[in-house]
Write a structure and sequence with these properties.
By secondary structure, the chain is mainly β. 6% of the residues lie in helices and 39% in strands.
Length: 289
């Protein structure tokens, strides 16, 4: 091994050790944080809690050609597992073939808070993602905590983050503010803690207890659903190699809090989604870029 490569390896290991030594399991200091039970789960038992989660996305079948299959969502060993497979199911809608993926969507919507998961992404070009969105006739916004590709020199330690505005009463054209962060480790090698801090003034992205991005909150004031999923990204990551599948994105926990110190009377901790408020279109989300 070259001397330069040796120093680089030791440097990455040192930073990794520092990061993992400060894994956050609580919200940031300085707030009056109250747990949001509807968006908190330790994934005990052997099945998904249907009072909190859909085992699919009710408004979307997946990013083509990967189809969201409920068979790819499971709970075991104290974790939620989302799996991508190379398989063709019978009678799939047009455009879906070759791959199946997975999605979990919250029943509750939330506006502002601190949302944390401990997870290990899958080792595949099928994505592992943690994100928030909601679609109504008046408004469609989205916050991507991460979209990770677990393989390839370009992607295996690239943390993709974004905030999208598809439309609002004042914004008619889709735009977004994306960014990336290079981790001192490969995501698929171990479990790490990833979080979003979102309030009326600022959005912060956290990894292992450290802020890796901060964005002024100019437009993201809509109650949103929480989502975990895996998608095929043919124009971004490329289609998965069949030999790499099946592969699994595993989540040890999700924990959510509301900061009552800066919440106004119109900022509920969560809103239960009724059938009349369900997102109308079955439209692919734009992706992180």
């Amino acid at each position: 091994m070259k001397t330069s490569d040796l120093f680089l390896t030791f440097g990455r290991l040192f930073v990794f050790a520092c990061c993992t030594a400060t894994l956050r399991a609580d919200p940031p200091p300085g707030g009056k944080w109250q747990p949001i039970s509807e968006l908190t789960d330790e994934f005990k038992g052997d099945k998904l809690d249907s009072t909190k989660w859909h085992d699919h996305n009710p408004g979307w079948k997946g990013r083509e050609p990967g189809f969201f299959s409920t068979n790819n969502v499971s709970v075991s060993d104290g974790k939620l597992h989302l799996t991508a497979r190379a398989e063709d199911l019978k009678d799939l809608p047009q455009g879906y073939h070759t791959f199946t993926t997975a999605a979990v969507k919250s029943i509750a919507l939330v506006k502002y808070g601190y949302f944390e998961i401990k997870c290990r992404p899958m080792k595949s070009k099928a994505s592992s993602a943690f994100w928030f969105y909601s679609i109504t006739k008046e408004e469609w916004t989205e916050i991507d905590v991460f979209e990770i590709c677990g393989v390839g020199e370009k992607w295996e330690n690239t943390y993709n983050m974004n905030a999208h505005v598809l439309y609002t009463p004042t914004e008619k054209d889709h735009w977004s503010k994306g960014d990336t962060w290079k981790a001192p480790f490969n995501f698929v090698d171990d479990y790490h803690v990833y979080a979003l801090e979102w309030d009326k003034d600022v959005i912060k992205w956290w990894v292992d207890g450290k802020v890796v991005r901060e964005l002024k909150n100019t437009h993201w004031h809509q109650p949103l659903n929480m989502n975990f999923d895996s998608e095929t990204m043919p124009e971004w990551f490329g289609l998965p190699d069949k030999e790499s599948l099946p592969s699994t994105f595993s989540i040890e926990y999700v924990r959510s809090w509301r900061n009552s110190a800066n919440a106004g009377p119109d900022d509920p901790a969560n809103v239960t989604q009724s059938p009349s408020a369900a997102p109308p279109p079955s439209t692919p989300r734009p992706g992180a870029r």
